[in-house]
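Supplementary notes for students who missed Thursday's class. We covered one full example, reproduced here. Read the sequence, then the structure, then the short commentary at the end.
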Amino acid sequence: MPAETRTHRKQLPEEAASYARELIISGAVRPGEFLRLESIAQAVGISNTPVREGLLTLRSEGFVQLVPRRGFVVAPFTPQDVRDLFWAQARLAGELAARAAQSITGEQLARLEANLEEYERASAAGDGGRLAALGHQFHREVNLAAGSHRLTLVLGSIVKQLPNRFYAGIEGQVDATRDEHPLVLDALRRRQPRLARGIMEEHIAERAESLTKLLAGRGLW
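Structure (token representation):
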């Protein structure tokens, strides 16, 4: 089997898991509700087999439970679960930002500056999908600048459990990113690890409260 085909097939369960995870953490499906393999397969455009594999991944993350002969049911999800995920993300991302402040290159700084400029344009255009992608790209660039591959992988395993597609729609999120990402960049440019850590940790921690308020408003809790 060609390597490209093997890679594509490996990604299908990840796509299904990402789609179902987003349904859960956005409140589109509630604790106690069953996830239908057929519906997810149709939405993602794949067969039931990789959907099942993806849901097994979510079971290992605690998002779903497998009920014998009935299928996958959404597990209880609490505000503290949200805060815990963001707490872990904030600590790891803060450490990576501190390391990046010591090792970031001029080329990497230029890419971050270009990212902020493009974010402004996407904000003016109201392009929520592009805003989410650019926000993710900014953080990825900072993480790569830290030069800490293992720590970045651990952070990635946490970040994938958090919402992405609908996040730009959270009230105040776009404005907060427009204000705070330049502060992170300035700390990196000035080679101030402690400042970069503090700004990054606070930036991410605040998102936990935004998300818990959003989900409370949707009646999830």
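Commentary. Confidence is low (pLDDT under 50) at residues 1-9. Residues 79-103 form the longest helix (25 residues). If anything here is unclear, bring it to office hours.
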